[in-house]
Amino acid sequence: MNHTQQLLNFIEKCPSPYHRAETLSKILDENGFTRIYEQDNRVLTPGGKYYVLRNYSSVIAFKIPKDVKAFNIIAAHLDSPTFKIKENPQLKQGPYISLNTERYGGMIYSTWLDRPLSVAGRIMVKEGNGVKQKLVNIDRDLLIIPNLAIHMDRTANDGKKMNPQTDLLPLYALESETVDFYSQIAQAAGVEKDDILSDDLFLYNRQKGTILGADKEFVASPKLDDLQCVFAALQGFLSAKEEKSVPVLAIFDNEEVGSETKQGARSTFLSDVLYRITKSVGGHRDDMTRFLSNSFMISADNAHAVHPNNISVADPTNRPAINGGIVIKYNANQRYTTDAVSSALFKMILDKAGVKYQTFHNRSDILGGGTLGNISNTRVAVNTVDIGLPQLAMHSAYETAGVKDTEDFILASNRFYECEIEKNGDGMYIIK
Hints:
Blueprint: H1 3-12, H2 17-30, E1 34-36, E2 49-54, E3 58-63, E4 71-77, E5 82-93, E6 96-104, E7 117-127, E8 130-137, E9 171-174, H3 181-189, E10 196-205, E11 210-212, E12 218-221, H4 224-239, E13 246-252, H5 269-280, H6 285-293, E14 296-300, E15 303-304, E16 326-329, H7 340-353, E17 357-360, H8 372-376, E18 383-388, E19 390-392, E20 399-402, H9 403-418, E21 421-423, E22 429-431
Parallel strand pairs: 1-2, 4-13, 4-14, 14-18, 15-19, 16-17
Antiparallel strand pairs: 2-3, 3-13, 5-6, 6-9, 7-8, 7-10, 11-12, 12-20, 16-18, 19-20, 21-22
């Protein structure tokens, strides 16, 4: 099975952030990693392989070599723009019942219309004197957000503005006294409805991913931003041998809403884990500071490819193409944290891996988005490069990217995890 089909299978197992964390956990378990808990005093040993979950939606995995000198970190995120189910969700609208939702992140509204949708996430249920998390996925076509017919809105093709409270609620059922959303959730989770105390439930696109193009060079799927980077980084992490620094894979939740949560990139999660690794080899805070000076982070979040029907919205001289190489992202205002140092070091790593690169800047008159790198650096200050795999229709319910780009990032991740970056003075570095 090629990596693209593996990527699509991975995405299909991941309808919600919690399912994505669980899928990552199972893969790590299968590869000999041991889960540790933040509240435990478990002793970590050199040669060990471990991972930690926070909120069951962010995951950090790492291996501890015998001689710790630095951390080689790849950070990515597992959340995607969607709609979250509100409390008391059933809403009568004429002869229909819709579900009341709110936006999570910034999506292209129109791409969610006229597609089969369903619901997945987690519920908290009573168990004795406590509560327990249960994952739930209604694994069938359940909902749809219907468009208004062109006959009733002749301006539909003129750039209609949609109201998320009135235009984007998913159709659930015909009006009936017996229809009960939480009874359906309880049945899917295998629990009693009365035992459900709370929930985090999201809509997801049921359309399966596919490989397309004249030479099967494109991949289209929900959630390529950022599960394509997560998948490729994971493959490189698992296959790396003879690591000279501590390899760390940090997969965060809540990037699409600003990362300002206990499990987001702006939290203490990464620094807490790195300090625990430092303590496991007999180090203290000053040792961790010394390790970080030789460390490097790749902030991996998909990048904008030049659009075939809208070439003019791209920067005149920095126009990444799908399958044209890994994209290094720059921004003068540090929305991307790449600078001359991190860019140069990453280019050398790519050269050692035999992987090409491209560059991205926003047009100077267009405000772009941000990502994990600069946010994470407020907690863990290391040389960091912001990169991504080029894609079209970012934040659509169904995105398009390149087959070769996945393979390139697997190679680059593998080479990165196997190298050592040593700082030899101010502005001087050696890659071993």
